[in-house]
């Protein structure tokens, strides 16, 4: 499924990176330590985090995650939003916490 | 002579620009039709290296040589050097300050990640002089 289909099903709000919404969602990774995520997340993963800074966008771009989901209404920095738009990396926002969101993603990917 | 030779200056203490060099290399490798897994490995290695130059090296230089069968990356700084390379290679070991950790870095995963995703890696460091990290990614390996 595309990340847009998943976002619609889970009720996530798009914050940036509209051009990348057709990316295929393949698996999921949860984490906030950027190097840890960089080393472990797989290409295509839906990445759940609370890190909405410029470096998170770089990690998503370089590690080929399909999108970023900022859980618990974590904020996306203005410069990060610009970069995500430029690079077509979808960034979504949601209110549920990381665990609850991971369960939602699991249900969708099942 | 390599097929493609690239040089980048990485400024120190500027986290907003880290990722520019690795992003550019990734883009160029894609255009060359490099295998996606090798591109991803090069991008991760280079980004970790750039972040190290920013956090620890006071900035430096990234030099990339691309050939059909391998990508060589050198990260060169004139920073403080690494007193104990073996210790620095251990996952979880970090000397990054708190402000860096708040950004999501400093987990002590940088060098271990680089090791994990490269096919060849050497670290040449002298305290007070600087550090040179050389890495090679060979498509089809790992």
General description of the model:
The complex is a heterodimer of chains A (110) and B (142). Helices cover 43% and strands 16% of the residues of chain A. Chain A has 110 residues and is an alpha/beta fold. The longest helix of chain A has 12 residues, at 98-109. Chain A is globular. The termini of chain A are close together. In chain B, strand 2 (59-67) and strand 3 (70-77) form a beta hairpin. Chain B is built from five helices and five strands; from the N terminus they run βααββαααββ. Chain B has helices at residues 20-31, 36-57, 85-88, 98-102, 110-117; strands spanning 4-11, 59-67, 70-77, 120-126, 130-137. Chain B starts with a strand and ends in a 5-residue tail after the last strand. Chain A binds chain B through residues 32-36, 38-39, 43, 51, 53-56, 58-59, 61-64, 79, 87, and chain B through 15-16, 18-19, 22-23, 26, 36, 40, 43-44, 47-48, 51, 103-105, 107, 109-110, 112-113, 116-117.
Radius of gyration of chain A: 12 Å
Helix content of chain A: 40-55%
Q: Helical residue percent of chain B?
A: 25-40%
The whole-angstrom Rg of chain B is: 14 Å
Strand order of the largest sheet of chain A: 1-5-4-3-2
Task: Summarize this entry quickly.
Chain A is built from five helices and five strands. Chain A is of the alpha/beta class. The model of chain A has no long low-confidence stretch (mean pLDDT 96).
SSE layout and pairing:
The complex is a heterodimer of chains A (110) and B (142).
Chain A: H1 3-10, E1 13-16, E2 28-30, H2 34-40, E3 46-49, H3 54-63, E4 67-70, H4 78-87, E5 91-93, H5 98-109
Parallel strand pairs in A: 2-3, 3-4, 4-5
Antiparallel strand pairs in A: 1-5
Helix pairs in contact in A: 2-3, 3-4
Chain B: E1 4-11, H1 20-31, H2 36-57, E2 59-67, E3 70-77, H3 85-88, H4 98-102, H5 110-117, E4 120-126, E5 130-137
Antiparallel strand pairs in B: 1-2, 2-3, 3-5, 4-5
Helix pairs in contact in B: 1-2, 2-5
């Amino acid at each position: 499924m595309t990340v847009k289909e998943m976002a619609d099903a889970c009720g996530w709000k798009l914050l940036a990176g509209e051009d990348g919404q057709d990316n295929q969602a393949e698996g999921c990774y949860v984490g906030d330590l950027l190097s840890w995520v960089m080393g472990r997340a797989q290409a295509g993963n839906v990445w759940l985090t609370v890190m909405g800074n410029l470096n998170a966008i770089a990690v998503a771009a370089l590690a080929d995650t399909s999108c970023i989901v900022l859980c618990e209404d974590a904020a996306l920095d203005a410069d990060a939003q610009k970069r995500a738009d430029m690079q077509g990396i979808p960034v979504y926002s949601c209110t549920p916490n990381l665990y609850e969101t991971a369960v939602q993603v699991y249900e969708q990917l099942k | 002579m390599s097929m493609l030779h690239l040089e980048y200056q990485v400024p120190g203490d500027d986290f907003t620009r880290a990722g520019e060099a690795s992003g550019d290399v990734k883009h160029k490798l894609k255009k060359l039709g490099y295998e996606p897994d090798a591109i991803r490995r090069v991008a991760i290695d280079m980004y970790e290296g750039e972040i190290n130059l920013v956090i620890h090296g006071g900035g430096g230089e990234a030099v990339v040589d691309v050939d059909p069968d391998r990508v060589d990356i050198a990260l060169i700084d004139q920073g403080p050097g690494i007193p104990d390379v073996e210790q620095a290679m251990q996952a979880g070991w970090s000397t990054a300050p708190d402000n860096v950790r708040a950004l999501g870095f400093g987990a002590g995963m940088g060098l271990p990640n680089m090791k994990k995703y490269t096919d060849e890696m050497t670290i040449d460091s002298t305290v007070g002089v600087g550090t040179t990290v050389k890495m090679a990614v060979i498509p089809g390996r790992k």
